[in-house]
Design a protein that fits this description.
Length: about 200
Amino acid sequence: MVDKYSIFYSYKEIGDVLLIIFDEETLPTSHNRREDVAVIYHDDTIIGYNIFNISKVIKIKTKGIIYFPSDVFIDVINTILQNQKLETLTHCAHSGYVIGQVTNIEMSGESIAPFIDVGDKIVKGQDVPNVKIGDKVVVALPGARLYDGQEIKEDISPAHLCSNRELSISNDDQIYLVDEDGIVGEDFFKIGEENHD
């Protein structure tokens, strides 16, 4: 099973095609079409799949990267892949985006570096204006994919605080502030389960 991948969909920009990418940094050299699935290769290595006419199978109401696909969504994709005798995808345990809370701010000249509690540790964020102690923000952890497909690397020193644009909330580049009831350390893209008594 493939455990590291990104999923993209944008009907307006690329048509009714679901892109599943294993390696954003490797350029494709060939492809092999099997009915509605194109297998994308770099030399002999599979680096992704394109699934055409996906809306005939499942409705997708988002545009761009699908940060935290549900198990049901992945099961549908896996059925398509199994029918073509292709390697399937693992379920996503976490999107890589957590709610954090600014606990301290370090000023150095004009630089403002927030320290953020992400639940299991305190991380130093990148230089950003307009955040204050107590603000809740979204932090992309190492391994997370940004909206443009870039992966947050383990060796990046400051944690990446996400803007409205990066989270597809609005077109401005202000750091997105999470509502007060956001739980520190929780996956930002996790859909909460309600208790029904």
